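thread: overnight batch results

M.L. [08:02]
morning all. the overnight job finished for the chain we discussed friday. pasting input first so we're all looking at the same thing
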Amino acid sequence: MNLHTATRILIMGSAYTVLHKLAHSFFPPLRFSETGGAITSVLWLIATAALILFAYQFLTELSPRDKRLRYSLVSVIVFTGIVIVSKLPLWPMSDTGFVHRLLLGIASLCNTLAILVFLLSLARHVARNSTLWTPLRGSIWAFGATAVLGLVSISFFLLYLIAGKELEPFPFLQPLSMLVFLLTHGMTIWFLTQFRRISNYEDIVPR
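M.L. [08:03]
and the structure it wrote out:
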């Protein structure tokens, strides 16, 4: 296993995550099928774990001097692990109530912020004439938008805790969330594809 292989696995994982989201959005019965739901959930967990593999291989293979790169990748590993655990059929994580929503919401937001810090830190080492420049900048904007939506979601949840009743989100939030989701994963796949083509990673991430 090396970083090139881990990157390829993460590309496949990101592509499956998009398919998973679209399948559950356009084929609602899939969510209520015990067999279909179990299969897609396991595949989603594997696809999500690919992010941990990429972060681990990046740290192991490159050992970057940049502390923000190191700490952000460690944070990605930790928060992605929490997201995965929150999706496992374990008590009380399997509960769809307060504990599950709070844990998953905070972990997902922190994970998005950790990825954003990683991208911003990596951008400091990427030259403007690099093939990584455009997809990296696009990914930064996409994850920034994802973080903003995550903050909005957490705010609605906190208002629910304070007011004691669930508030209806703005009508445009759902289609906007889907658009940002597709944009984020599209940019991620583009960035990872270009990243995998680099022959020597130390050219952009010096030890």
